[in-house]
Design goal:
The protein is an alpha/beta fold and about 260 residues long. It has one domain: Aldolase class I (TIM Barrel). The longest helix has 16 residues. The strands form 2 sheets. It has an 8-stranded parallel beta barrel with strand order 1-2-3-6-7-8-9-10, surrounded by 6 helices. The N and C termini lie far apart (about 40 Å).
């Protein structure tokens, strides 16, 4: 692996081999998502606890302070919305010149395996990898399921992750599943980070699945709504960070969460 690629990956995955990514790219298909109407304001109190921020070029240009000291993962797929016919019908919307111009540390795009647009999304992933490898920019593949959340089971997720890695993704983001998640990670030759999906009912539930996923081999998480849509975003991200980087268990993370809320930590 050449120096540039190693350098960019080291900005994302920390010295302990773990990572906490903070995505705020939901507006590319949902519009002004609740609590993300003003992305720059949303992340101000919490970005310091993340290892990288994930967003689109529009939000990066207009909402993120250029002096921010965090790596950026830029989403480069899109051209679909929640009111359209099929969320899987994405395309690449940002090219390599813009990627380099904005000086991002990595890029991300969704792949929709098992849909009628499977070939299109995987072909786009191959094209993106070809472009980015020339300049040492890592590609993170996002194994998306659109509205079909029932697909989040180990056999399907393992297939998605492995295919994305085979095509050349340097990191894969996928959903957590309670049963056999270790098989998903074991079958993927590149680092796996856990997607948040819909907001959980309780913060404890988030701590539980983050901890279990880490125990089963994930290097970290890519969580948005389960942080910035919560009542206490700073406490939420600090609890999650404690699990990822400090080796805390869910109970200890929840205790820290309560302490932060009470102003005692």
């Amino acid at each position: 692996m050449e120096w540039g690629m190693k350098n960019r990956l080291s900005q994302l995955i920390q010295k302990d081999g773990k990572a906490l990514f903070l995505p705020i790219d939901h507006g590319y298909f949902q519009g002004p998502t609740r609590c993300l109407e003003k992305p720059g304001e949303t992340i101000k109190p919490i970005y310091q606890y993340a290892d990288a921020i994930m967003c689109t070029r529009g939000v990066l240009r207009n909402c993120i302070d250029p002096a921010i000291n965090k790596p950026v993962i830029m989403r480069v797929s899109g051209a679909v919305t929640v009111v359209g016919e099929d969320l899987a019908n994405e395309n690449l919307v940002t090219g390599i010149r813009e990627i380099l111009r904005l000086n991002v540390s990595a890029v991300s795009m969704s792949v929709f395996i098992g849909t009628k647009y499977e070939r299109q999304s995987l072909s786009n992933l191959a094209k993106l990898v070809d472009q980015c490898e020339d300049y040492g920019v890592p590609v993170m593949a996002v194994t998306a399921v659109g509205r079909e959340l029932e697909k989040r089971e180990a056999r399907y997720l393992a297939l998605c992750c492995r295919v994305a890695a085979e095509i050349g993704a340097r990191v894969v983001k996928t959903y957590y599943c309670k049963e056999k998640f270790e098989k998903v990670v074991e079958g993927c030759p590149v680092p796996v980070v856990i997607a948040g999906g819909p907001k959980t009912e309780t913060q404890q539930e988030t701590f539980d699945f983050v901890y279990d996923g880490m125990q089963k081999g994930a290097v970290g998480v890519n969580l948005g709504r389960n942080i910035w849509q919560t009542e206490h975003p700073v406490a939420a991200i600090r609890g999650i960070r404690a699990i990822i980087h400090e080796g805390c268990n869910p109970k200890e993370a929840n205790e820290l969460y309560e302490q932060v809320i009470a102003g005692k930590a």
